[in-house]
Amino acid sequence: MAGMRQCGRGGSRGVTLIELMTAVAILAVLVGIASPSLAGLMRHERVQSAQVDFLAALGYARGEAVLRRTRVLFCPSLDRIHCSEANRWDGGWLVGVDRDRDNQPDEAPLRVGEAHAQLLILSAASRRHVTFLPDGSASGSNLTLLFCNRDHPGDALGVVVSNAGRARGSRPTGKQAAGCG
Asked: In whole angstroms, what separates CA 4 from the centre of its chain?
């Protein structure tokens, strides 16, 4: 046993209080540096999640119009039963059949969406809903939805629905993003 060292009084060493406090201080500095970028990532993720939610709902509404061979509308809704006359969509939305062309669902909505409390979601004042026709097109002019983070307008995203009924995500122009403030 000539090459083996005995563990005795000085053989094993623990962590001192000073070393532990230094490690905690370094960790606190690293967390402090990472927090702002993490918060920015979370803000952007919130806006992007709402954008994807709307793109999926628009695709669903268009598909239901073709499948059911009737008019299906996508509109803002505060009560999850009727379409709102406002151009604010952050309170929720619905998808519903509109055979009688009154821009309200004829029966219970096919699908409803939840409110996005920390976002501002707007359409143009002249275009408050999308109506998909049985051929999948969207009657009327193009619709642009603007998704804004209330505190950081630079995080804005958009959704554009063409007359052909195709919905796509977009980055708003500077003029459109100014509508966030």
From this structure: 63
Segment 28-46, tens digit of pLDDT = 888 777 666 666 667 678 8
Residues 57-91 pLDDT 10s = 999 999 999 999 999 999 999 999 999 999 999 99
Taken in order of first residue, the domains within the chain and their CATH numbers are: 37-178 (3.55.40.10)
The tally of CA atoms less than 13 A away on the side-chain side of residue 76 is: 21
Check if the beta carbon of residue 74 is closer than 8 Å to that of residue 130. Answer: yes
* Three-state secondary-structure class, residue 154: strand
**Per-residue confidence band for 173, with pLDDT thresholds at 50, 70 and 90:** confident
Q: pTM for the complete prediction?
A: 0.77
- The DSSP code sequence of 97-135 is E-TT-SSS-SSS-SEEE---TTEEEEE-TT---EEE-TT
CA distance 4 to 45: 57
